[in-house]
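Figure S4 source data
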Amino acid sequence: MSESTLPSWADELRGRYLAGESSIFLLHGNVRDLHGWRDDKGELQWLDLRDFLERFLERTREVVAYYNVSQGLQFSNKGHARLFRSIVDGRRQVRGEAKLDDLPATAGATIPVIEDLITDPAHSSAVVVDYFEMIAPNADVAFMVHEDKANLVSLQRWSSDPSFAATDNLVILVTEHLSDISRRITASPQLATIQIPFPEVEERESFVQAQDLSKVKMELEASVFAKMCAGLTLVQIRNILRGAALTQDPIDFTDISIRKKKIIEQECHGLVEFVPPRHHFGHVGGMERIKEDLRRVADAVKRGNRNRVPMGMIFVGPMGTGKTFVAEAFATESGLTCLKLKNFRD
């Protein structure tokens, strides 16, 4: 895969690493989605983050290891596993320790082994630590058990360890929410954080066109459908298409609005209140100029013409003049999901 076709976040990671900015990166945001990877034949594949990182790193690394607290330490192929054991056993023998019998599973046993790998200057290695919040949670140190404290100290030490910085090794930490990670880790100036964004419209359209739509009753063009799926992940878009193929329900403007509402409601449960559409502009008396302007915006939303849709609108006026009523009518006319923000501090 050429560097020009890398996703923006992967290109940023590569650039910052080659510039010597850091050897430890924390990926957060849309980490549970699919990502486009173009193979040596030029074919575009859609991979989850683990598969993407393994292919991305295998091009330049002799060992690529993957770890999470559930599956333990894993490798993409047996050759990497053998070299890993050779490196770790060699360093353990120098210290007078026994060879590694089985691959460790717990974080307390795995972190020292990973440290042996990433501080070895003779080989180029990469380690991906997924669900990192389970190893270094944003919790009060006073309530941590000894093993958790030891893990936290080790992770802090990595970022300032000169023996690690002097190697050609790389550590990638993965979490969905940056706020779930201990501030002792995120505050480190040696840690480089990179947010993986939600897919842009071009990526969504490319993904939709790559899917098998033969069993999907699509009443919209792929480009319009992709624009209307703004804010959704590729996994969520795939689920919409699979659900439509199973039920044979047509995918139209109204259907997408309903499905987006269900997805947002599921992921933001308790944080927002959905307002079901109960009225439209036909129920609004007067305000003809306002309704005319809002209808133009609503039509642009339905057509997917983003250039004619404002970034936002503010309804101003004294209490009791119908601002909320008109806004809810606009939501009905445009098909947008109408919601009220609840108290985020609860």
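Figure S5 source data
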Amino acid sequence: MMKLSNRKRSFLSYFMLALSLVLVGSATVLSVNTMGENTISAHNGYGTRVCAQPANITAPASLSDYVDVQISVQAPANFTHILITRYSGNHTFIIVNANLSPREYFTAFLEIPSENKNNQISVQVQNQSVISINLQLKPSYLGIIAEVFLIAGIGTFAAFFLIVEIRSRKYLYLVPVYIGLSIIYGQRFDDYFMISLGMRIFDGSNPYVQKGFILPGLQWEYPPLYAIWSYFVTLFTHYVLGFNIPSNTGLNYVEVAYNDIYSAWRALSGVNLIILYGLAKLPFVISFFWIDYMLLKETGRQQWKLWLINPFAVAVGIMWGQLDVLGLAFLLQAIIYHKEGKDFGAVLFASIGAAIKIFPVFVIPLLIARSKRKLLSSSAIIPVILLCLLVYAASGNLLLDLNTIVTGRTVPTFLGVFISEGLTWQIVISDLFIRNFPSIFLYVFVPSYLVYTIYALKRHVGVERYFIITMLLFFVTYNFMNPQYLIWLIPIFILIGEFRYAAILSLLGSIYLYLNYSYTYFLNPDIAWNYNAGLLGQIEAIRHAITSNFVVLGVFGVLSTSIFLYLLVKMLRNEHAANSAAASC
């Protein structure tokens, strides 16, 4: 097999990078679907309004026997009965005929046969006059072309990633690129919380509890320090940029009241999400490069593939812009301070990290126990606790706020029903419709964590390995094993030289993102508001329905847990072997 020279290898790799950007960029252009685009609406004399999207179904019939169309019905007063029919091919089909609890809103996804080019949807609420809208099938291969471009772009980038060799330490040119990515992309549900948090405080409301017209599930269930930045963003955009800030009640999208919590982001219609995405995620972009700087300092080499251009790390830390990367930066600094004997700084930074995202809290007991001046190190927690209590108390009700974060992070139920998501075997329990199931996290992880902490103190386990083993145990037992949690361990594995394990977690997270999400969902809503209605969005919706079905995700959840268990056993064995070797010397 011919071996490429360094010059040819460099040229080929960067050609692939350029090609992947062109392909993904072209697919993104074909994803654009602004608010109201490809949407049809009608109303009657009673003020009831019906909306449907996509109005023009462009996905070719050969891809799927049915296509999903979202129908939303909003009435000026409560109704308890709705009838939805479809007229096509001289036949009328009843789709929905339901008695409901009193409501002003109803939404449903209708399966429309893909061979019928014209479909008339009729909606009747109570005994009001019928509202009719026409949906048309206009097959276009542009959506398929966009999907091919997207998959080819991802594949081409993967090829670039595998063959590129970057020896340069110059990475600052990535800063504006990643700021741009943080604006174009996002996790619209999570970004809604980070943006609306400061807006609720600005409106004088308590964002931590289900009162003051905050719907269930929309309260802030994370530590409070990010609220300071979110509030600053709100003040800046209002007083400097002149943005109108939605009221607290205006941030409650109506569908959320009827158990469609993941539509909450639609309440941000009318605000400039291009600016708000960039400002809300700026701390995460800074943290991403801060982590890279610390890894460079500790390992003596630029971690290009495992961090700087790691697709999973960039997706979570930059494109999604998760709190995790900010908390992780403070945790990593705490670990480095601990290795340097700076005990007070180690505890302080771990405490700040935990006040952003809770996971750094698990290393604090070990840091204090290992410190030379335990009382002084313990005092580093005090200013962080006081600041958190101040933020909670300022919002209105300290005890309720604290109860929100404790119950929200430990109880495996939502509205009294067991639920699980992500890379966990427990997703199978949810798929089997088991509504009551004990909290494995509370009954297994918590006592195991206490026992292992005692063991680690006696055996002098390093803080990096202690954190890794603790988090792997967490991954195995937690019922909401979100993919972004994997990023917690990637830099720590790099620190201890376990590059293979960092790569395994990165690959695992990347595969899950592809299986469980539509690409268009990640686009800023100002670019693709109805993300399933655009040319690419309709094709991605079909692909997503296949790759995210309960069998695929159930199998992947079990596989993920198996990998976590494997890594946990390997780390425990390595730790035991290291302790045995030390004892024999």
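The CA atoms of residues 348 and 383 lie 9 Å apart. The chain is about 55% helix and 15% strand.
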